[in-house]
Write a sequence for this structure.
């Protein structure tokens, strides 16, 4: 303040008199969004912010919203320096040609929102990054991108060691992964879905030795989560560090995971750090005993991330073993298991590194067990959705004991506004799901709006007492919202939508099923949301003209009416 005073009196000691190097060092520790605010203050700070941008090595633009168009990205690309090595980019508002401006020298590139693009996008990426790219991630659901586009990436970017793809059902992912395996011999990390056994044999025939594998089965014919699968992967991945297998098909005729499969994993006890198995089939879950889980925990002492979801025989004793044998647990998921309060008590006492806990659907817990999580102290994510024992007292204990919480799911619990003051004290909160908590009202939403200003996702579906005034306060207080679910909130009408579209410029996903008071005027409000990609308006009454007019003006937005894509 003293410096500013002398500057105003002509003393020549204001910001303009400071070397740009000093300003850069002051600005560098700030968050990216703070640079944008500083740049608007004066021309001196604007110049300093541009200089800072030239020094960054990592840039996260996946939540940039509609402001990141072709022109903005081209300008940004000219200002980032040659030190930039890692870029995360939302391509929703970018054309294929915009990717011709991807900075050269990138080593890591993650593209999301690739829903209306073509192979030209991938050709531009390959041309700009062919000499340096080693980590590539792509997410898109639609458009005209084909397996051939990814084959060009594989042919030109032969140094790729990490490849991740998430796309719609029209993509031939097996061809893509085979091309990457054939041309990128150093591939060690793979994340994909619906790969077949034939594809995995091809991967290993190419002498690829995966260290990290994440695979999700969504359709029949893809690699199932069975004993034979575990044995295959263990045999062909001698350096396996991470294994994440998810089965979402609930198909019972492909085999099961039994004690034999779990015990086979002990062969990788010296290297395995992450083990996540999510079974879909209830019959498959019945074939694993507590003894096998205890043996696995006893052998794999270096595990830090564990998921054993829907293991119906996984109760307290094997969890005790896991906690005691794996003291550096960071992430633990035990969804749908019959654990009791005793497991949570022991977890709170002995897992001092634990950051994330998920006990979704665990029905043998009580308020006392959930309150024990408050003793952890450093939890960042808690998911107790549809678990028993969710009360105001439990929520207060969890939030007050873990002020650094960023993600909280306590859906279908006996919660009221009384406990939301504690939630509001968690000022780092980014994701909050309280759907089915019917006692929450507008007063509780006002508390959330005042405290959780960094929220990006919120679900309040079937919170019957929420009305427009509560949603309006939420929209004003939480302008960073990206995804909002308000299904079944029957008191809501057009003003709620208007507020969300007006005050939340990054809003992408909006679900308002069974909000029957909505009318055709809602489409005018939706037009004002520049980043919107997905809208579900459920069973409200709209005219054909209103729907058609919106679709003509926003052809890329997925609009669902009565469960049908418009």
């Amino acid at each position: 303040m003293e410096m500013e005073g002398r500057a105003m009196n002509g003393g020549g000691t204001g910001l303009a008199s400071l070397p740009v190097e000093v300003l850069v060092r002051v600005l560098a520790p700030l968050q990216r969004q703070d640079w944008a605010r500083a740049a608007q203050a004066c021309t001196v700070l604007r110049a300093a912010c541009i200089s800072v941008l030239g020094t960054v090595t990592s840039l996260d633009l996946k939540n940039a919203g509609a402001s990141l168009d072709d022109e903005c990205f081209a300008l940004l690309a000219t200002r980032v320096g040659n030190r930039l090595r890692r870029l995360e980019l939302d391509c929703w508002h970018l054309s294929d040609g915009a990717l011709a401006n991807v900075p050269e020298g990138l080593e890591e590139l993650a593209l999301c929102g690739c829903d209306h693009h073509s192979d030209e996008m991938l050709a531009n990426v390959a041309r700009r990054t062919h000499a340096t790219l080693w980590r590539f991630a792509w997410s898109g659901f639609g458009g005209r991108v084909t397996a051939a586009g990814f084959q060009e990436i594989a042919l030109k970017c032969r140094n790729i060691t990490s490849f991740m793809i998430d796309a719609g059902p029209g993509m031939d992912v097996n061809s893509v992964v085979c091309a990457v395996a054939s041309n990128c011999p150093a591939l060690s990390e793979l994340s994909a879905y619906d790969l077949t056994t034939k594809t995995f044999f091809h991967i290993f025939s190419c002498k690829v030795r995966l260290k990290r594998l994440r695979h999700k089965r969504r359709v029949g014919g893809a690699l199932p989560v069975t004993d034979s699968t575990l044995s295959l992967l263990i045999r062909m991945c001698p350096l396996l560090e991470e294994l994440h297998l998810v089965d979402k098909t609930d198909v019972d005729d492909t085999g099961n995971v039994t004690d034999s499969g779990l015990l086979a994993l002990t062969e990788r006890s010296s290297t395995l750090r992450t083990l996540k198995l999510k079974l879909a089939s209830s019959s498959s879950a019945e074939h694993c005993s507590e003894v096998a889980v205890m043996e696995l925990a006893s052998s794999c002492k270096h595990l830090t991330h564990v998921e054993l979801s829907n293991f119906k025989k996984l109760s307290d004793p094997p969890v005790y073993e896991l906690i005691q044998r794996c003291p550096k647990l960071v992430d633990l998921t035990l969804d749908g298991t019959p654990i009791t309060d005793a497991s949570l008590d022991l977890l709170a006492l002995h897992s001092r590194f634990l950051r994330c806990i998920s006990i979704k659907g665990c029905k043998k817990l009580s308020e006392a067990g959930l309150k024990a999580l408050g003793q952890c102290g450093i939890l960042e994510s808690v998911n107790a959705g549809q678990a028993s024992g969710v009360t105001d007292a439990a929520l207060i204990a969890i939030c007050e004991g873990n002020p650094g919480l960023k993600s909280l799911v306590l859906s279908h619990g006996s919660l009221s506004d009384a406990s939301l003051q504690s939630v509001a004290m968690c000022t780092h909160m980014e994701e909050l799901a309280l759907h089915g908590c019917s006692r929450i009202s507008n007063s509780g939403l006002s508390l959330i709006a005042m405290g959780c200003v960094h929220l990006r996702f919120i679900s309040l579906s079937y919170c019957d007492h929420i009305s427009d005034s509560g949603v309006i306060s939420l929209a004003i207080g939480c302008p960073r919202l990206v995804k909002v679910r308000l299904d079944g909130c029957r008191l809501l009408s057009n003003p709620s939508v208007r507020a969300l579209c007006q005050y939340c410029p990054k809003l992408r996903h909006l679900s308002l099923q069974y909000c029957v008071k909505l009318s055709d005027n809602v489409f005018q409000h939706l037009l004002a949301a520049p980043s919107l990609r997905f809208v579900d308006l459920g069973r409200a009454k709209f005219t054909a003209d209103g729907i058609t007019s919106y679709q003509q003006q926003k052809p890329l937005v997925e609009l669902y009416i009565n469960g049908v894509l418009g």
